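Sequence in, structure out. First:
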Amino acid sequence: MKLIPLLFAACLILASCETIKGVGRDIENAGEAIDDAVDGD
């Protein structure tokens, strides 16, 4: 019975890592867009 909570926790951890990675990419892309706008490219 302890296996189910462990599997659930592992799924949450893996999902949150992917979400954080995606947010990081979004922030990086936004920063590049702002930089391009300031530079006039």
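Second:
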Amino acid sequence: MDTARCKAFVAAARVGSFSRAAEELHYTTSAVSQLITALEEDLQLPLFLRSRKGVTLTADGERMYPVLYNLVRQEEKVYETAAEISGLIVGKITITAYPSICAAWLPGLIRRFQERYPGVTIRIDDSIRKYVLEALNSGRADVGFLSNQHDFTGEWIDLQKNPMVAVVSQESPYARWDSFPLAECEKAVMIQSSHGVDKDISGIFEKYDLHPNIVYTTRNSGTAAAMVQDDMGVLLVNELSTHMWRYRVKVLPLDPPQSISLGMAVSAFSSASPAVKTFVRFVRDAFES
């Protein structure tokens, strides 16, 4: 398999554009298009849907992505391992994480890591739990930062316990309370900051047999917080998320108190690249010190 074709495919799939992939790979747009067309002809599969707005993967392309991505990563690991033998740590790391962790933890961790290992480049993708898990399970990400809901088959490292809190507007009657009783979730207008099931929250509701009055859902917790500021409802989130905002809201502890375990997930540490292994050890040591 021609790895240049695979690299062009992976880059275009990630950025959604042949021209942007060309910039990343230091090719011409025409060269990227030709490489991908040759790959499609070789596999006898249509991999991309092309439009004026860019490109998106076909169903066949979605199935091929993790296979071709891993092929590219294996070649990169060869050179990274050779560099490690020579005493250098080089390579690429793709991180997927909750937005709250991206904002609160990763800037400082990555800055210190790259001061020590300048030959490593890092790409960060922030998203809700569903997409963090998809990126890890498909191989699109090397390391994930999320909560532990025991639904990931890779290796897990606990880093920190984080309390769950209720966020209310300063005009809300709840703002005068010292805490937010979980039973109120059945009465108050609730805002959910993820599409579908949020396991960090749903587990709490199941534990206490609660049926929350969820009226609004949004994928972005910042949008949800802005809605809270306008007194549209109550939001339950991990406390770390509130560090990202500058909204006029009040944060209340839950009654009874609840917390989640935040940590780091790696699909397969034993087969990870030297750069990924070094990063994982660095993060673990940073939290243990």
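Remark: Residues 164-259 form a domain with the D-Maltodextrin-Binding Protein; domain 2 fold (CATH 3.40.190.290).
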